[in-house]
Design brief:
The protein is about 60% helix and about 10% strand. It is mainly alpha-helical. It has a domain of about 220 residues: f41 fragment of flagellin, N-terminal domain (Up-down Bundle), CATH 1.20.1330. The protein has a three-stranded mixed sheet, covered by helices on one side. A two-stranded parallel sheet has the order 1-4. The N and C termini lie close together (about 10 Å). About 25% of the residues are buried.
């Protein structure tokens, strides 16, 4: 006949060992994942807030990427406009030189032609990923470009996108559609006795300038009055180019300012999420070590208790 009895000491030791094993397992998971809050049951409030913040963080990240793309387009256009304005200054100086007595106007015109080619190259090269704010293609008109400025969310989690608009009408230098859309392809009435109008570049536009408009260039037959008209037209072009460059610069500055703000906001959001759900790895490492030792000691204690109980039962057998 057999009888059984409850070893209260062993049961207590086993219960302690079970608690320590569960705590050790939880700590191991936190160390492996780096997270103190992995699921809603760990901390419902923190989990909910952190999940919402993660969604906002993804929106901020997308907006940051879009802004970086827009900033590259604006910066490329600004660089191109600056280079184009410098070339225009050189063309203006060549026209002034053409009025000098005894100058070889054919040589001057050759230099102006070279500068025009250089200008065309700069404009064509002012493109980022197919976007060029200094040029429009055939059948295309300058339009307003809308770029991501910022992303905001209200208390209900609704996300709204704010945009920055830029009107390419003030920056288009060459228009292959309608010549009148380009600052350098449209005709300007020169302040000269002849009253002729002049344009700088012939882009082969689908809609050319009106009859009577002349391309800027000099020859031995060009009169000083005509050169005055060309210089007046170039001055008008440069004034508009400077305004266009300022508009591009202001837009670029706004994009950069918002980009910096979004980057800082993104960093703050990530820090906020980390503070709520990330584990203190130093603390968790200490816990892991101490709980491991505790588990070993409790296992040894349980083994001793069971061994003692077995000897006692043998003595009373």
């Amino acid at each position: 006949m057999y009888s059984s009895s409850l070893n209260a000491t062993a049961a207590s030791a086993l219960s302690l060992l079970g608690g320590t094993s569960r705590a050790l397992n939880d700590t191991t998971i936190r160390v492996a994942s780096g997270r103190e809050v992995n699921k809603a049951s760990d901390n419902a409030a923190y989990w909910s807030i952190a999940t919402t913040m993660k969604s906002s963080s993804l929106s901020l990240s997308s907006a940051e990427d879009a802004q970086a793309f827009s900033a590259a387009i604006a910066d490329t256009a600004a660089l191109g406009m600056t280079a184009a304005t410098d070339i225009m200054s050189d063309i203006q100086s060549k026209l002034i030189l053409a009025k000098s007595p005894g100058v070889d106007r054919k040589a001057v015109n050759a230099e102006i032609s070279q500068l025009k080619q250089q200008l065309t190259t700069v404009i064509d090269s002012s493109s980022f990923n197919g976007q060029n704010w200094l040029k429009t293609g055939a059948g295309e008109r300058p339009k307003v470009e809308s770029m991501v400025g910022s992303v905001a969310s209200d208390g209900n989690g609704n996300v709204s996108v704010n945009v920055i608009d830029f009107d390419r009408g003030g920056s288009t230098l060459v228009a292959k559609g309608d010549a009148a859309d380009g600052l350098l392809t449209r005709a300007y009435s020169g302040t000269s006795a002849s009253g002729a109008s002049y344009y700088l570049l012939d882009a082969g536009s689908t809609v050319p300038n009106g009859a009577g408009a002349r391309e800027i260039g000099v020859s031995d037959a060009t009169s000083n009055d005509e050169i005055d008209g060309m210089m007046s037209a170039v001055n008008s072009m440069m004034a508009r180019m400077i305004d266009g460059g300022a508009a591009i610069g202001a837009t670029s500055s706004r994009i950069s300012s918002n980009t910096n703000f979004l980057q800082n906001l993104q960093d703050i959001t990530q820090i906020g999420i980390g503070r709520m759900v990330d584990a203190d790895m130093e603390e968790e490492a200490v816990k892991l070590s101490s709980q491991g030792v505790q588990q070993q000691l409790q296992t040894i204690g349980l083994n001793i208790t069971n061994a003692t109980m077995a000897k006692t039962m043998m003595l009373f057998a």
